[in-house]
């Protein structure tokens, strides 16, 4: 196993531990806490918190004298914010699966939240995860100006001009043939906004300079496009047992997708193009020999490989 894969697994373990400790307070109604934890702890790649942690570490590691003790201290400080990104992502999955939205009864290999509980509980679980996420972020033990700026980025990414707006464009686009420009805008909001946030906020929280921040923002933007193209392809070519969710849903709901627009071969080519563009944005002149920058480059290139 390569060094960056070991680093990746270590970050996932730390995120899982932080999530496992969440929402155990007796002040939360037991039924609500159960539904929140059911979805939050259902597994998944933990991509967004890993991107956040790795982005911050990639910036810090490019500074001279940054050692292992510094690395662990920074990870501990970042975990509330990184965990909150997974809470926002989980909220979006719970609400996307609802009958009024994508009407999907399978998520991460088991019944969606509204199937395991009921629609009202699922709505409240999503609401609580989204709202509490900002509380976790606000308690990030780093300089207040950095935390405040990262919080503002998070609100923009999750709100009307970000994920919520992207979901609206997705619903409005059902049954319509969207142009490439319209598809790009939809995906940048619905999927890309949170991935871009994970990377850029990592730079902000690490106190990085403008060049590092811009590189990581570009990385997140390119990764977001590649991610959605890959997701669209796997909805055509994948299987529910492997992906942990129903496939063929896009066609059933007449959604606009990249394979429908470009064909499978060209969609695969586009996914690889954007994955490579993401990796190349983290050049060694800027990030040096940072092992977490190397991890981010590999994550980008591995993404499009899932479609072949």
The DSSP helix count reads 16
Q: Provide the gyration radius in Å.
A: 19 Å
Helix content class: over 70%
Average of the residue pLDDT scores: 93
Instruction: Give the SSE order as H and E letters.
Output: HHHHEEHHHHHHHHHHHH
* Strand tally: 2
Shape: globular
Query: Largest beta sheet, briefly?
Result: 2 strands, antiparallel
Give short descriptive properties of this protein.
mainly alpha, two-stranded antiparallel ribbon, 308 residues, 73% helix
Your description of this structure?
The protein has 16 helices and two strands. It is mainly α and 308 residues long. A two-stranded antiparallel ribbon has the order 1-2. Strand 1 and strand 2 form a beta hairpin. Helix 1 packs across helix 16, helix 3 packs antiparallel against helix 4 and helix 8 packs antiparallel against helix 9. The two termini are 22 Å apart. The model has no long low-confidence stretch (mean pLDDT 93).
Give the SSE layout.
Layout: H1 3-20, H2 30-40, H3 47-61, H4 68-96, E1 106-107, E2 110-111, H5 113-116, H6 119-138, H7 144-158, H8 163-172, H9 180-205, H10 210-237, H11 240-243, H12 249-252, H13 258-262, H14 264-280, H15 284-287, H16 291-305
Antiparallel strand pairs: 1-2
Helix pairs in contact: 1-3, 1-4, 1-16, 2-6, 3-4, 3-9, 3-16, 4-6, 4-9, 7-9, 8-9, 9-10, 10-14, 14-16
């Amino acid at each position: 196993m390569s060094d960056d894969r070991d680093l990746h697994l270590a970050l996932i373990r730390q995120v899982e531990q932080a999530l496992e400790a969440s929402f155990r307070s007796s002040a939360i109604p037991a039924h609500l806490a159960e539904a929140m934890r059911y979805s939050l702890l259902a597994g998944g790649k933990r991509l967004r918190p890993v991107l956040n942690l790795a982005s911050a570490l990639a910036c810090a590691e490019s500074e001279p004298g940054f050692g292992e003790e510094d690395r662990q201290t920074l990870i501990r400080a970042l975990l509330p914010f990184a965990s909150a990104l997974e809470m926002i992502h989980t909220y979006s999955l719970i609400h996307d699966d609802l009958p009024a939205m994508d009407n999907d009864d399978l998520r991460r290999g088991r019944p969606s939240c509204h199937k395991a509980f009921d629609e009202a509980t699922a709505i409240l679980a999503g609401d609580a995860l989204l709202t509490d996420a900002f509380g976790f972020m606000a308690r990030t033990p780093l300089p207040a100006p950095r935390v405040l700026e990262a919080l503002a980025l998070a609100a923009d990414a999750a709100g009307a001009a970000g994920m919520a707006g992207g979901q609206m464009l997705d619903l409005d686009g059902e049954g319509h043939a969207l142009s490439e420009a319209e598809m790009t805008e939809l995906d940048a909001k619905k999927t890309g906004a949170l991935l871009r946030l994970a990377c850029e906020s990592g730079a902000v929280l690490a106190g990085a300079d403008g060049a590092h921040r811009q590189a990581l923002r570009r990385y997140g933007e390119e990764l977001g496009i590649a991610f959605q193209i890959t997701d669209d392809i796997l909805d055509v070519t994948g299987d529910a047992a492997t992906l942990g969710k129903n496939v063929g849903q896009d066609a059933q709901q007449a959604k606009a997708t990249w394979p429908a627009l470009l064909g499978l071969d060209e969609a695969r080519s586009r996914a690889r193009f954007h994955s490579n563009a993401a990796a190349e944005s983290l050049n060694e002149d800027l990030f040096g020999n940072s092992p977490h920058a190397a991890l981010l480059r590999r994550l980008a290139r591995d993404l499009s490989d899932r479609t072949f």
